[in-house]
DNA sequence: CATGGAAAATACCACTCTGA
DNA sequence: TCAGAGTGGTATTTTCCATG
């Protein structure tokens, strides 16, 4: 039924034909290439002008993009990239109103001090203790670091794991829309920039891709961290929804996914995103 | 509960085929 | 030649799902 009646808004679109395929009128099918083209134009036009805020952030994106490419093209990649799996527990879903209450990291290289875990004082009540078991009393104490206390320690820890001239690839499940935005906001509130050599990789699309390549039905394709863990036969070490046990699960899941999808470190780095690419909300139609 | 990306559903066009 | 059904392709909108 293509009638549609009067209740639905129809939008007239330009006439299309089936002879030109997707890339008609010179459109670029690869979003990254397209972005690069757009940015190239921005940079060349802004060369004679003062850079305003938007142009500056776009210019930063180019620099990050270049870092990713440079690193990915480097033959001795393992000596440049530090892979750190991380997970955060928060007081809720809102990145504006809610705060981090626990953070855990694991450097996949292993060795001494390869893990880092701490509770974080959110300086507000914890109303979702039933999720992770972290209560207001546990974190609202003078001996639990606030985010502004923790950031310098965190930066120092990551720096200690980082290789000279290299970058850090942070891996988290649903990183793009959860952990990284929370981290960005926490840094922003403290007036600290996330280092430009920090790259992020989300295991959620990797899980989706892996399940698809296995041919499992979309309806039975749950790609939550715990579903992936069960699917891959990874034992649960500790309780779910505590940062360090989730990190341990994710570390195993991540390594299995990279193996299943045959993803070399170079492509992981190239597909990674930066903190500057987070927090620019896309316009969404009302539902 | 907030948010955004992916997948699915829907809309609509050009074109082909078929029967009268 | 014409009308109508069917098909293929693309654009847009809606729904689902992941995170604490």
From TrEMBL:
Polar residues: compositionally biased ranges: 13-28
Cofactor dependence: Mg(2+)
Source organism superkingdom: Eukaryota
CDD domains, A to Z: DEDDh
MF annotations from Gene Ontology: 3'-5'-DNA exonuclease activity; metal ion binding; nucleic acid binding
Keywords: Exonuclease, Hydrolase, Magnesium, Metal-binding, Nuclease
Domain Exonuclease: 82-263
Single Gene Ontology BP annotation: DNA catabolic process
InterPro entries reported for this sequence: Ribonucl_H (IPR013520), RNaseH-like_sf (IPR012337), RNaseH_sf (IPR036397), TREX1/2 (IPR040393)
Location of the region described as Disordered in the Swiss-Prot/TrEMBL record: 1-31
Keyword Nuclease among record annotations: yes
A single GO cellular-component term on record: cytoplasm
Recorded family membership: Belongs to the exonuclease superfamily. TREX family.
The protein, known as: Exonuclease DPD1 chloroplastic/mitochondrial
Species in which this protein is naturally found: Prunus yedoensis var. nudiflora
Taxonomic placement: Eukaryota, Viridiplantae, Streptophyta, Embryophyta, Tracheophyta
């Amino acid at each position: 039924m293509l009638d549609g009646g009067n209740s639905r808004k129809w939008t007239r679109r330009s006439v299309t034909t089936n002879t030109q395929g997707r890339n008609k009128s010179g459109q670029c099918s690869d979003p990254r290439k397209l972005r690069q083209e757009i940015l190239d134009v921005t940079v060349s036009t802004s060369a004679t002008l003062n850079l305003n805020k938007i142009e500056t952030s776009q210019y930063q994106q180019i620099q990050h993009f270049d870092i990713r490419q440079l690193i990915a093209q480097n033959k001795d990649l393992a000596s440049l990239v530090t892979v750190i799996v991380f997970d955060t527990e928060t007081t809720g879903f809102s990145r504006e109103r809610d705060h981090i209450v626990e953070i855990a990291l694991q450097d996949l290289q292993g060795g001494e001090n390869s893990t880092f875990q701490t509770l974080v004082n959110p300086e507000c009540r914890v109303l979702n203790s039933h999720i992770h078991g972290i209560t207001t009393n546990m974190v609202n104490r003078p001996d639990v670091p606030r985010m502004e206390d923790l950031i310098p320690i965190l930066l120092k820890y990551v720096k200690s794991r980082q290789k000279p001239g290299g970058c850090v690839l942070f891996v988290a499940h649903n990183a793009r829309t959860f952990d990284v935005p929370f981290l960005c906001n926490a840094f922003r509130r403290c007036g600290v920039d996330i280092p430009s050599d920090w790259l992020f990789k989300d295991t959620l699309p990797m899980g989706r891709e892996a399940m698809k390549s296995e041919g499992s039905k979309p309806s039975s394709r749950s790609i939550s961290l715990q579903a992936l863990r069960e699917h891959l036969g990874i034992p649960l070490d500790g309780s779910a929804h505590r940062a360090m046990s989730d990190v341990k699960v994710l570390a195993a899941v991540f390594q299995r996914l990279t193996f299943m999808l045959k993803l070399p470190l170079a492509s992981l780095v190239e597909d990674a995103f930066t903190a500057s690419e987070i927090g620019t909300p896309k316009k969404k139609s009302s539902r």
